[in-house]
Amino acid sequence: MNSNxxxxxxFILFLFISFFxxxxxxxxxxxxxxKKQNGKRLEFYAKNTDSMSYSVFLRIVTKDYRRSSNxxxxxxxxxxxxxxxxxxxKLTDKPGNYEEQFIVxxxxxxxxIRKDFDDFxxxxxxxxxxxxxxxxxxxxxxxxxxxxxxxxNSKIAFKTKHIIENYxxxxxxxxNSDITKDSIKNLPFILKIKSKVYTNICTEKALIDxxxxxxx
Length: 216
Prior knowledge:
single chain; alpha+beta; four-stranded mixed sheet; 6 helices
């Protein structure tokens, strides 16, 4: 994440919080916060049933869960879509309490910021939309969030799994690679496309190159 993006993100985040009262008044029932429980994982999605786009802000405050990102989520939700926002993983022996702050604004009436991988040439093959794609993510992984945003914007279906919780499966997938068993848990981001597993993607450019070259 470059410094200009960090500054812009912080500025937009400040404005969202500052105009909280106004945003609450513009909240639209056509955009809802969806929660999906899967074992210890609690995933939050924004579902937009309207024909126009909305921007959403989600902040989760909790001591009972691990989070895929500690920062608030600020995303644009396209018309008639459901976008993943954040994943919580319940800690052992915790009751599962949390507080949420969810704000919705019409894009046409709000400031917006969008990270589009503008510095890279993206020629993603449509064939990827039919592949079995899984993102294995770690905590506080900005590249994981960028990859999910890119896939959502490109209409590419994918699943998300946590690296620690799926260590045994990853050990089998990587048994013929140069990755040692102990180092698997330290990998921040793993991408699986059908039978191919990529463990060396560390930047947005590397991600784009992998997707562009997948069928070459």
